[in-house]
């Protein structure tokens, strides 16, 4: 039911005044999910260090999230700076459903379409490679995230996830670096 509603919304967007920038021809990659995913170990602070640009995220730099574990998944606070240098914060939930493995969760944030959150691979301590994509017959809305436990020295996380995404059929050249500079404030 949820997939049908999301697909209908995506078709409506594509049929409207044009195709939004985040919608592209093609289908989502069929990615593998982390086996034996441990929600408790995944909890904590994560920094987005490389992403496929996401129109639903109002921030462009210093992006970080805090995942508070509960029995139903995570309460997530994500924050960062907008292009206008405004510190913004969003709160929502990311949680597993009975329809998919635990590592294939659902993103539920205000004013955002419900979307998949698929942990392809993580070591819980340094990196996480996350894929989120919805498609119809001809179009996809595809997002990818490289998370690191620290904003500095994230090269190993980027290298590892580059390999993971390529192995799963996701074009890693679409990913852009998220700047983490001395001006960053981490309050999520």
Summarize the structure.
The chain has 188 residues and is an alpha+beta fold. It has helices at residues 2-15, 39-42, 155-167; strands spanning 23-25, 44-52, 61-70, 73-81, 87-96, 104-108, 115-122, 127-135, 139-148, 175-177.
Identify the notable features of this structure and list them briefly.
about 190 residues, alpha+beta, 8-stranded antiparallel beta barrel, 3 helices, about 15% helix, about 40% strand, disordered N terminus
Topology:
Layout: H1 2-15, E1 23-25, H2 39-42, E2 44-52, E3 61-70, E4 73-81, E5 87-96, E6 104-108, E7 115-122, E8 127-135, E9 139-148, H3 155-167, E10 175-177
Antiparallel strand pairs: 1-9, 2-3, 2-9, 2-10, 3-4, 4-5, 5-6, 6-7, 7-8, 8-9
């Amino acid at each position: 039911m949820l997939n049908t509603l999301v697909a209908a919304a995506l078709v409506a967007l594509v049929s409207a005044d044009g195709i939004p920038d985040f919608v592209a021809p093609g289908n989502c990659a069929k990615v593998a999910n982390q086996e034996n995913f441990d929600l408790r170990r995944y909890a904590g602070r994560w920094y987005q260090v490389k992403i496929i640009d996401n129109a639903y995220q109002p921030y462009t730099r210093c992006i970080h999230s805090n995942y508070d574990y509960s029995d139903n998944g995570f309460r997530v606070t994500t924050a960062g700076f907008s292009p206008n240098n405004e510190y913004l914060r969003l709160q929502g939930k990311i949680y597993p459903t009975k329809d998919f493995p635990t590592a294939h969760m659902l993103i539920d944030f205000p004013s955002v379409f419900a979307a998949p959150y698929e942990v392809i691979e993580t070591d819980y301590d340094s990196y996480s490679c996350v894929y989120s994509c919805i498609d119809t017959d001809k179009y996809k809305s595809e997002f990818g995230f490289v998370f690191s436990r620290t904003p500095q020295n994230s090269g190993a996380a980027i290298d590892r996830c580059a390999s993971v995404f390529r192995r799963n059929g996701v074009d890693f050249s679409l990913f852009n670096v998220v700047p983490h500079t001395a001006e960053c404030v981490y309050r999520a």
